[in-house]
Amino acid sequence: MLDLRGYGWMLWQGLELTILVGLGAMALALVLGLIGAWGKLSRARAGRWAAGTYTTVIRGVPELLLILLVYYGVPTLIQDIAEGAGYPFIIDINPFVAGVITIGFIYGAFATEVFRGAFLAVPRGQIEAARAHGMGRALTFRRIVMPQMWRFALPGLGNVWMVLIKATALISVIQLEELMRSADIAARATKLPFTFFFVASLFYLGITIVSMVVQRRAEVWANRGVRRA
Amino acid sequence: MDLAIVWESMPRLLEGAALTVEITVISVAIGLALAIPLAIMRLSPNPLLWMPVYGYILYFRGTPLLVQLFLVYYGSGQFRVFLDGIGLWVLFREAYFCAVLTLTLNTAAYTAEILRGAIQGVPRGDIEAARALGYSGTLLYRRIVLPKAFRLALPAYTNEVVFLLQATSLVSIITLLDLTGVARIIVARSFEPYKLYITAGLMYLAMTYFFLFLSRRLEHWLSAHMRERPASAAADRASR
């Protein structure tokens, strides 16, 4: 049943692209998550409002719709605005870039919540002690808060990664030849849809299982300084 | 900005939203009914019971919903002769059936995992007390374990329902005209992408937050015994 009719290489290439999109999107999500958490915890009302709107909107709108909006909607919107201003031009977004940006933007909202929780989990007394020693806010963040935040954030970030990598399957709708799209093309060409989608699903399952193992190791590593009861 | 296209398409978008809600409600209801026995089996000491359930949960939580959807909708075509033979092809031919089947199996896996955690969170003392009172088997689960587990599971389960509501947008890829599907068709004809996608997005937002509001009310109602008695009621009691 698992005769792939010479399309196996295509799935491997798709897998490679899926992992690349996933890693790029995760990097973007981490940056946006840190900025978002900073906004949510900031004393400035505008910061809290902007970060709050970001997480509220992302939580309430399906990923597929956001992908369609970014890939088809945003270029048209910019073109319409430019045309209105008298500078008509055509934008063409590369599907890879659109995929990384959209998925990264969506999961940045989830990373925001993770980082916010992790920041609040760092004992207040340690921050006060650092300030009493004369460390500034930036130095306190870098030396005291940040190293401990990673430990609290790791389980949450692991979950974000595992949901994110599965969400990359959605960008097959904008014709990027990642794993899902490759499987689709192979399935149509060979008329063996079950075979190819099943193999693709096992690839995703493999990514999930490897991620679970890596996450467990990373948690052990991050907690190495913590005494066990 | 000219929003005429949005008003013109509103009736069709609302029809799409109705299908979105319909698919969500059916999948959530059947998924929950399946998840309860699955969670109990998952916790069984018998490997013949827990191992298949563990594999099922791992597969459905470890692969993208889109792959599962294609596996059922397109993949079933590979077994057409067999399915025709046992009279099931009429079902698998329908995108609606495939969508509901996939979403149900998917949410059942996630819900079973949430319930498993919640059942394990029920304090041992409660179960010991119930056993001391002579409860066992089904009655123990029905009267003690499950009610408490449901209350513990509610916040996580609310999240799962919100995710499922949004996940239903994938059914538009297999030709169903849910809210996303209707928006995509109108965009393809009118070429006004951002107006329609933003409108559809706002409609999803409204549905999500309306549901979250309802679930918060439910949570409040279910935790009545854990809150302090309102001052007037306490005074009422004291004066009696």
Describe the structure.
- The complex is a heterodimer of chains A (about 230) and B (about 240).
- With about 230 residues, chain A is mainly α.
- Chain A contains eight helices and no strands.
- Chain B has a domain at about 20-180: Orthogonal Bundle (MetI-like fold).
- In chain B, helix 1 (about 5-40) runs antiparallel to helix 2 (about 45-60), helix 1 (about 5-40) crosses helix 10 (about 195-220) and helix 9 (about 180-190) packs antiparallel against helix 10 (about 195-220).
- The longest helix of chain B has about 40 residues, at about 5-40.
- Chain B is flat and about 65 Å long.
- The relative contact order of chain B is 0.14.
- The chains are: A mainly alpha (about 230), B mainly alpha (about 240).
- Chains A and B meet through helix 2, helix 3, helix 7 and helix 8 of A and helix 2, helix 3, helix 8, helix 9 and helix 10 of B.
**Which CATH-level-2 architecture of the domain at 18-181 in chain B?**
Orthogonal Bundle
Number of contiguous helices of chain B: 11
Strand content of chain A: under 5%
Helix and strand content put the structural class of chain B at mainly alpha
Q: Please, what is the average pLDDT of chain A?
A: 90
State the CATH topology of chain A: MetI-like fold
**How many distinct beta strands of chain B?**
0
Gap from first CA to last CA of chain B: 66 Å
Broad CATH class of chain A = Mainly Alpha
CATH architecture descriptor of chain A: Orthogonal Bundle
